[in-house]
Amino acid sequence: MRIVIAEDDPLLREGLALLLRAESLDVVATAGTPDELLSAVDAHDPDVAIVDVRMPPTHTDEGITAAVEARRRRPGLAVLVLSAYVEQAFATELLAGGGARLGYLLKERVGRVEEFLTALDRVVGGGTAIDPEVVAQLLVRTRPDTRLDRLSPREQEVLALMAEGLGNTAIAERLVVTEGAVHKHIRSIFAKLDLAPTDGTDRRVTAVLRYLDDARRRR
Question: 142 falls in which pLDDT band (50, 70, 90)?
Fold first, then answer.
């Protein structure tokens, strides 16, 4: 796994690099600015970029903008975005182009090394990893008359865990139910969100994107 790290805080940047190298992962470059990130992606063709949301010069959304551009240049690039705060709009902006090989974690998650590495593996493997705290904050917002209101409380729980990037086995373990029950709930979610198997899309990704986009528009 070839990794580029883009983080303007030198201590966190080097700490991440040391952590990943200690796990025998190949950190091919580090960057402190969006331009340095894009140059590193062009030069090293990494498998994944770990990117801070807020970077110079304005420390607003430069990291997200650079991540989107990096994926435009390298369509197969996995991106794991790190943020100090829950910023739902940035999460949905990044995911809007397609949910595969994308992750959005709070920086505090890095300290939970096993969780962080699991999320990194999931993203590089083609999945999605959304921080549970982001999902939790999306869940508390409500708006009448949406398709998501059709879901039962259990189906909403299942969709929230899908948004974190969990597969059926992990969801079953988290909810202490059978995989068959999870599969049944997911089929019901697809039906209630009008996602037909003949749509020609990844229904799981589409359901998660609708979930995140709906939450963004409620703000």
Answer: very low
Q: Tokens 């974690």 sit at which residue? A: 105
Domain boundaries in the chain?
2-131, 141-218
Would you say 185 and 155 are in contact if contact means Cβ atoms under 8 Å apart? yes
More confident residue, 11 or 135: 11
* β-pair type (128-130, 78-83): unpaired
DSSP-derived letter for residue 128 is E
Q: For residue 202, what are the contacts with CB-CB under 8 A and spacing of at least 6? A: 99, 100
* Block residue for tokens 């580029």: 4
Which among 111, 90, 190 is positioned nearest to 150, based on CA atoms? 190
CATH homologous superfamily of 2-131: Response regulator (3.40.50.2300)
| 141-218 belongs to CATH 1.20.1250.20 | no
Helix or strand or coil: residue 136? helix
**Residues 166-213: pLDDT tens digits?**
889 999 999 999 999 999 999 999 888 888 776 555 788 788 877 776
Euclidean distance between CA atoms 104 and 94, whole angstroms: 9
